[in-house]
């Protein structure tokens, strides 16, 4: 019996249900089919290029070809950094038939050290079958030819000719150009740029090579290689050439740069030369230095050890990173400040050789005194007492703004990653830094370029160029960024003229007589300077002050020199800073060094003749001395691993060594408040800058 409410399934009802389900299924099938067809059309038409490229990349692999770096040239187009042919040998893993035999033969032919064999084996294991593995680079022709003639016995070996960085002047341009090196693993992980792991590719690690990297790098080329689905090499296709980097022109005169580096001799020091009409830097030298070719090729452990242990700190760019009390080189600038404040140039101060201030005695470098001197005489004879007295009356807060206007304490827009810009102190600065007031002793010490005053050699050269030109010249190193119309300084032209006359008197009859140019018709104006780096106690004074020649290198005075020429119409200006020179060797002292460098600009033959007379007494030219130093160091030290120091290690350790040198050279020491280190009768003040023994520099 059929219950009430039950539905009877008739044939008509069943047929209707089946038809409805069939239509739904058909509609679903049509929808899926339409979707698939649309997707296929999208992939075949809209995404055709994308998937064609993917397909092509599965069939063809690209091996990048490192781009040739752009040249760095001087103002005349002479190369400062260029590229030389690089003979290298690589291995193509997929073509190597007997790895152990081939690598063993290469090790023997190329005389590779044992640890290089381990490196090659490790790279072969992790390298893709078609990607080259570097065996050796910078090969001489004999070794390159020895591999080339035995290629039938060395399947998978690929001797190639590429390009590597070359610095014709070597160490003379090291701190200017910097050097190049291979990318570190960390750098590759940051960028994932395949060029970074391409054999032979190097980029800027320091100096201009680093800061101008975007201009110098260029664009890589590529070798197209057809491979199977499993990555096996089938054949090499056409090669896409690289695009070389741009050539960068500097304001540097390469001949002057090399001459200045040679003329510094065995000194630890720096030289900067300006065109004082435009602010173009004609030379910027820091010596001693390293050979950037060695760094770029892979420096040996022994050479690295020698450089990092050298107390002359060849890894440090002293032009920008060295800070020194400028000593008496600030006296012309201080004289300008006095004139601008209304002091008469004819007013005289009597120099008796010493001056008492409170319970302290400040001495002049001339023990018996100079007698009465006006401003020009005080600058010419470098009299400390004149400046002590005048700036005691005026107050150093009236001098500091002039010092800043002349370039001290400034950081300039140059293509380098680091500059240290020193200190121009005043009462507000001391209160902020030391939470104590400015004293008369501070003013007296600052008046002779000691105390808290610190400057780098570039700033001292800018000071000389601005005094010479009367204009706010800005240092320029790139030819495309020269300001050829600098503004005038905010000082009276007649006051600048008086200061220039006083600097001419320094050479014609003052403390800088040895710097007189031997070029007929051209006179030079200059100012000498000495800055002590140690305290001279009363006990030492009573027993006899030790001369610089009796002191260890690090305790000797710094020697400074600023100059410009011609004196009556200045065109060139320069600054020479010699660390711990102590005026111990005449032909290595600042006056003769400055004279010869300036002579080069007017009479190159005369300058070269002067250099050739004295250079043999220093042990030869730069390369000869560096080679002899390395030989002596190797002989005195146990043999170290002969393999190159990894570039990333060298770069990191170089930075650490320079930081340590800077910290040591500018470590804080107590000040004595005593000029020329004569007596120490004022209370000591802690935390004054290093090298500020409050000496009256005097010469």
TrEMBL record:
A GO molecular function held by the record: serine-type D-Ala-D-Ala carboxypeptidase activity
Gene from which this protein is expressed: mrdA
Keywords carried by this UniProt record: Carboxypeptidase, Cell inner membrane, Cell membrane, Cell shape, Cell wall biogenesis/degradation, Hydrolase, Membrane, Peptidoglycan synthesis, Protease, Transmembrane, Transmembrane helix
UniProt region (Disordered), positions on chain: 634-699
Keyword hit for DNA-binding: no
Domain of life: Bacteria
Pfam families, per the entry: PBP_dimer, Transpeptidase
Primary location recorded for the protein, binned into one broad class: membrane
Segments forming domain Penicillin-binding protein dimerisation: 65-237
Membrane topology: Single-pass membrane protein
EC number: 3.4.16.4
Penicillin-binding protein transpeptidase domain boundaries: 269-582
Biased composition (Low complexity): 634-661
Annotated protein name in UniProt: Penicillin-binding protein 2
InterPro entries listed in its UniProt record: Beta-lactam/transpept, Beta-lactam/transpept-like, PBP_dimer, PBP_dimer_sf, PCN-bd_Tpept, Penicillin-binding_protein_2
Localization terms from the record: Cell membrane; Membrane
Keyword Hydrolase: yes
């Amino acid at each position: 019996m059929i219950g009430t409410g039950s539905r009877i399934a008739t044939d008509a009802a069943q047929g209707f249900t089946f038809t409805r389900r069939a239509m739904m299924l058909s509609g679903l099938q049509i929808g899926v089919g339409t979707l698939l067809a649309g997707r296929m059309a999208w992939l075949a038409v809209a995404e055709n290029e994308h998937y064609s490229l993917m397909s092509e990349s599965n069939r063809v692999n690209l091996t990048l070809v490192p781009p040739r770096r752009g040249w760095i040239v001087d103002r005349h187009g002479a190369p400062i950094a260029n590229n030389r042919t690089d003979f290298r040998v690589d291995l193509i893993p997929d073509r190597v038939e007997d790895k152990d035999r081939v690598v063993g033969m290469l090790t023997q032919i190329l005389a590779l050290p044992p640890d290089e064999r381990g490196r090659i084996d490790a790279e072969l294991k992790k390298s893709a079958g078609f990607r080259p593995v570097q065996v050796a680079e910078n090969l001489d022709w004999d070794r390159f030819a020895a591999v080339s003639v035995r290629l039938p016995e060395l399947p998978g070996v690929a001797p190639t000719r590429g390009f590597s960085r070359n610095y014709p002047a070597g160490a003379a341009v090291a701190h200017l150009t910097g050097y190049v090196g291979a990318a570190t693993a960390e750098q590759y992980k940051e960028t994932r740029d395949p060029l970074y792991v391409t054999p032979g590719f190097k980029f800027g690690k320091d100096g201009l090579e680093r800061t101008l990297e975007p201009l110098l790098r260029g664009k890589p080329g590529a070798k197209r290689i057809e491979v199977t689905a499993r990555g096996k090499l089938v054949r090499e296709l056409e090669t896409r050439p690289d695009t070389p980097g741009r050539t960068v022109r500097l304001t540097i005169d390469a001949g002057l740069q090399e001459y200045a580096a040679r003329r510094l001799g065995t000194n630890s020091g720096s030289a900067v030369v300006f065109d004082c009409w435009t602010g173009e830097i004609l030379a910027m030298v820091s010596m001693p230095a390293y050979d950037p070719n060695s760094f770029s090729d892979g420096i040996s452990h022994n050479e690295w050890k020698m450089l990092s242990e050298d107390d002359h700190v060849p890894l440090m760019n002293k032009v920008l990173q060295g800070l020194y009390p400028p000593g008496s080189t600030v006296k012309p600038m201080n004289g300008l400040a006095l004139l601008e404040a209304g002091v008469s140039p004819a007013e005289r101060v009597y120099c008796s050789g010493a001056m008492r201030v409170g319970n302290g005695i400040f001495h002049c470098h001339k023990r018996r005194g100079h007698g009465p001197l006006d401003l020009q005489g005080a600058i010419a004879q470098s009299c400390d007492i004149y400046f002590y007295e005048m700036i005691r009356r005026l107050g150093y807060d009236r001098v500091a703004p002039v010092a800043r206007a002349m370039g001290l304490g400034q950081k300039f827009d140059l293509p380098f990653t680091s500059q240290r810009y020193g200190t121009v102190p005043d009462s507000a600065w001391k209160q902020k830094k030391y939470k104590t007031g400015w004293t008369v002793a501070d003013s007296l010490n600052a008046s002779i370029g000691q105390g808290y005053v610190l400057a780098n050699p570039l700033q001292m050269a800018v000071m000389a160029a601005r005094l010479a030109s009367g204009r706010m010249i800005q240092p320029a190193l790139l030819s495309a960024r020269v300001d050829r119309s600098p503004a005038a300084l905010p000082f009276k032209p007649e006051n600048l003229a008086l200061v220039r006359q006083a600097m001419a008197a320094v050479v014609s009859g003052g403390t800088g007589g040895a710097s007189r140019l031997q070029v007929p018709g051209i006179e030079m104006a200059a100012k000498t300077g000495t800055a002590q780096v140690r305290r001279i106690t009363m006990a030492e004074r009573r027993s006899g002050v030790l001369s610089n020649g009796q002191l260890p290198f690090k305790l000797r005075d710094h020697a400074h020199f600023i100059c410009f020429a011609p004196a009556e119409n200045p065109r060139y200006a320069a600054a020479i800073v010699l660390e711990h020179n102590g005026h111990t060797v005449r032909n290595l002292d600042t006056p003769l060094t400055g004279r010869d460098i300036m002579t080069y600009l007017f009479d190159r033959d005369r300058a070269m003749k002067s250099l050739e007379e004295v250079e043999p007494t220093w042990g030869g030219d730069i390369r000869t001395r560096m080679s002899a130093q390395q030989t002596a160091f190797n002989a005195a030290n146990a043999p170290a691993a002969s393999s190159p120091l990894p570039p990333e290690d060298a770069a990191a350790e170089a930075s650490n060594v320079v930081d340590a040198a800077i910290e040591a050279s500018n470590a804080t020491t107590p000040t004595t408040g005593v000029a020329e280190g004569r007596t120490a009768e004022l209370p000591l003040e802690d935390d004054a800058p290093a090298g500020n023994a409050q000496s009256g520099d005097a010469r």
